[in-house]
Amino acid sequence: MPKPILLLNCGSSSIKYQMIDADTEGVMAVGLVQKVGDPTPGTIDHEVDGEEFHDSTYFPSHTEAIAAVVKMFNTHGPDITEAVAVGHRTVHGGTEFNSTTIIDRAVINKLVELSGLAPLHNPPGIAGIRAAREILPHVPHVAVFDTAFFAELPAAAYTYAIDTELAKKYQIRRYGFHGTSHQYVSGQAAQFLGKDISELKQIVCHLGNGASLSAIDGGHPIETTMGLTPLQGLVMGTRCGDVDPGLHAYLGREMGLDVAEVDTILNKRSGMLGLCGKTDMRDVEAQMLAGDEATQLAAEVYIHRLVGYIGNYIAHLGGIDCITFTAGIGENAAWVRKMVVEKLGYFGAVLDEEVNATRSKQPRRISTPDSQVEVLVIPTNEELAMVRETIRTIGA
């Protein structure tokens, strides 16, 4: 008998979902709901056994969207009533949640209290949790936190140099995000190399539209680029990453904007979009090859920030055994990997350019046999990691 787990990733206007058999770890169904809360009709796409099914209707809220997901399962399969649990991707757990947690009313209330730490991410996640628990009340629901893996960061790494009482009162610290991916990929890298994770000093480069790095020593994270919010760190698709903290006040004064308006600029109109008008690295590469100077500079800024953090983390690790690229850009943008690794020659990293340029969905080594640093590409699978966490938490 299969052991299906339904996974939900609720954004402000979308719901991504999968059903995975926990026993075989095979994907049973995958889907996407778009335009949740939009006044125009949204869409739902549902795929089972290679067959695709589509529908379009209004989704005034997450409740109607989750109901549409259940209807798709009831109409096209697999049988959603066989699900043994529902796992919810939950972005921010604050200091309250350091591991995957079974959801009850008290957990939801605490997530509401924590919404100020992730105002763009936690509220839609909470709406999805409430809707799913209402429609699927007879199975356990668990919250899988993006921040959980980084809960054990050293105090020197997570502490900001601000008034300690203020930091304690408002839970201000570095939390880190993409933790499910960093944990999964670092484990897969060790398995690929045939080594115990406790033996490895690793840097994981999770490069997607949102991007973060982690330094992992013996399986334990000691640093990560994202901070109190997912805005800190690397240059991203629409997010600026590191800037002078005084920029918020400066833009507010000079442009007559409130904090929320400045936050929107830095989160949604900055990064690669702000630098060159593109967020897809395929478009960035094409514009660079066409000689566009703004795009060339944008790419150089992107790589500069990335390499700077890698060097920083090698210093904190006291050496490096393995650097792994993952997520959409990390797995597919060969030119990004090439530009990064070429700048790491000082540490003994040597790129196999032919392997690096070959597209593949498989885990692979892209460094040469004589490279002193293993450079890998490992596809992330946050959904599978969520399934494993869900099963572990419910004890099934």
Automatic annotation (TrEMBL):
<feature type="binding site">
    <location>
        <position position="16"/>
    </location>
    <ligand>
        <name>ATP</name>
    </ligand>
</feature>
<dbReference type="InterPro" id="IPR023865">
    <property type="entry name" value="Aliphatic_acid_kinase_CS"/>
</dbReference>
<feature type="binding site">
    <location>
        <position position="89"/>
    </location>
    <ligand>
        <name>substrate</name>
    </ligand>
</feature>
<dbReference type="InterPro" id="IPR043129">
    <property type="entry name" value="ATPase_NBD"/>
</dbReference>
<feature type="site" description="Transition state stabilizer">
    <location>
        <position position="178"/>
    </location>
</feature>
<dbReference type="GO" id="GO:0005524">
    <property type="term" value="F:ATP binding"/>
</dbReference>
<comment type="subunit">
    <text>Homodimer.</text>
</comment>
<dbReference type="InterPro" id="IPR000890">
    <property type="entry name" value="Aliphatic_acid_kin_short-chain"/>
</dbReference>
<feature type="binding site">
    <location>
        <begin position="206"/>
        <end position="210"/>
    </location>
    <ligand>
        <name>ATP</name>
    </ligand>
</feature>
<keyword id="KW-0808">Transferase</keyword>
<feature type="active site" description="Proton donor/acceptor">
    <location>
        <position position="146"/>
    </location>
</feature>
<dbReference type="GO" id="GO:0006083">
    <property type="term" value="P:acetate metabolic process"/>
</dbReference>
<feature type="binding site">
    <location>
        <begin position="280"/>
        <end position="282"/>
    </location>
    <ligand>
        <name>ATP</name>
    </ligand>
</feature>
<comment type="similarity">
    <text>Belongs to the acetokinase family.</text>
</comment>
<keyword id="KW-0460">Magnesium</keyword>
<comment type="pathway">
    <text>Metabolic intermediate biosynthesis; acetyl-CoA biosynthesis; acetyl-CoA from acetate: step 1/2.</text>
</comment>
<dbReference type="GO" id="GO:0005737">
    <property type="term" value="C:cytoplasm"/>
</dbReference>
<keyword id="KW-0418">Kinase</keyword>
<feature type="site" description="Transition state stabilizer">
    <location>
        <position position="239"/>
    </location>
</feature>
<keyword id="KW-0963">Cytoplasm</keyword>
<feature type="binding site">
    <location>
        <position position="9"/>
    </location>
    <ligand>
        <name>Mg(2+)</name>
    </ligand>
</feature>
<keyword id="KW-0547">Nucleotide-binding</keyword>
<protein>
    <recommendedName>
        <fullName>Acetate kinase</fullName>
        <ecNumber>2.7.2.1</ecNumber>
    </recommendedName>
</protein>
<keyword id="KW-0067">ATP-binding</keyword>
<dbReference type="GO" id="GO:0006085">
    <property type="term" value="P:acetyl-CoA biosynthetic process"/>
</dbReference>
<comment type="function">
    <text>Catalyzes the formation of acetyl phosphate from acetate and ATP. Can also catalyze the reverse reaction.</text>
</comment>
<dbReference type="Pfam" id="PF00871">
    <property type="entry name" value="Acetate_kinase"/>
</dbReference>
<keyword id="KW-0479">Metal-binding</keyword>
<feature type="binding site">
    <location>
        <begin position="328"/>
        <end position="332"/>
    </location>
    <ligand>
        <name>ATP</name>
    </ligand>
</feature>
<dbReference type="GO" id="GO:0008776">
    <property type="term" value="F:acetate kinase activity"/>
</dbReference>
<feature type="binding site">
    <location>
        <position position="382"/>
    </location>
    <ligand>
        <name>Mg(2+)</name>
    </ligand>
</feature>
<dbReference type="GO" id="GO:0000287">
    <property type="term" value="F:magnesium ion binding"/>
</dbReference>
<dbReference type="InterPro" id="IPR004372">
    <property type="entry name" value="Ac/propionate_kinase"/>
</dbReference>
